[in-house]
Amino acid sequence: MAQAGAGSTVQAVSDEQLIQSVADGDPSCLATLFERHHRGVFRFLLQMLKQRELCEDLVQDVFLKVLRKAGRYRGEGTFKAWLYCIARNVALDQLSRAKRHACEALDEDDLPRPLSDQRSAERAAAGKQDVNRVLQALAKLPAAVQEVIWLGRFEFDNYEELGRALDCNAGTARVRMHRAMALLKATYTNMHGVPVDG
């Protein structure tokens, strides 16, 4: 970390530096990583599992796994992608244990407003449409499709990082995103009679 002096600024420690410190035996750095990422991990888990209290507990589980697996982080991608891969596995384990297929309705208060799309201005403009209708259509999709859309549109801004979070390559992530968005569009159209794009 740079020293603050006359005319200089203090640079924040990167996530990658923090996880390396955790791996080197300094678990106190995990608190900073938790502060930076727990809200996003919670929103992702909530999108996948639809149970607020369960997701609050699972966020803790995710960060305990981060602590235990810190030495396995190799820096081949961002810490965030690695973290969401762990969160994804926790969600999939929970879905597998519960053998859930039916989705419960989302409580509007559980989602941040406004949702913003990090991929393109076109998608950001589309995000101004009726968010509730899009979320209803999203809730009708299989969990695996929901996770691709949620991660690809609201957490990561490139296919490389999305691929790392989904444990696949960038090309596969791109195809999965394209198919997921096509399914969302078809579901939205079937529910509301008009395509999501207008």
What is the first-to-last residue Cα distance? 49 Å
Number of strands: 0
Task: Estimate percent helicity.
Answer: 55-70%
How many distinct helices? 9
Your description of this structure?
- The protein is an all-alpha fold and 198 residues long.
- The protein folds into two domains: 14-101, RNA polymerase sigma factor, region 2, helix turn helix motif (Rna Polymerase Sigma Factor, Chain: A, Orthogonal Bundle), CATH 1.10.1740.10; 113-198, Arc Repressor Mutant, subunit A (Orthogonal Bundle).
- It has helices spanning 15-23, 29-49, 52-69, 79-98, 121-126, 131-140, 143-154, 159-166, 170-192.
- Helix 1 (15-23) packs across helix 2, helix 2 (29-49) packs across helix 3 and helix 2 (29-49) crosses helix 4 (79-98).
- The longest helix is centred in the C-terminal third of the chain and has 23 residues, at 170-192.
- The protein is globular, with a radius of gyration of 18 Å.
- The protein starts with 14 loop residues before the first helix and ends in a 6-residue tail after the last helix.
Write the layout of secondary structure elements.
Layout: H1 15-23, H2 29-49, H3 52-69, H4 79-98, H5 121-126, H6 131-140, H7 143-154, H8 159-166, H9 170-192
Outline of this structure?
The protein is mainly α and about 200 residues long. The protein is built from nine helices and no strands.
Can you give keywords for this protein?
globular; disordered N terminus; 2 domains; single chain; mainly alpha; Rna Polymerase Sigma Factor, Chain: A; Arc Repressor Mutant, subunit A; 198 residues
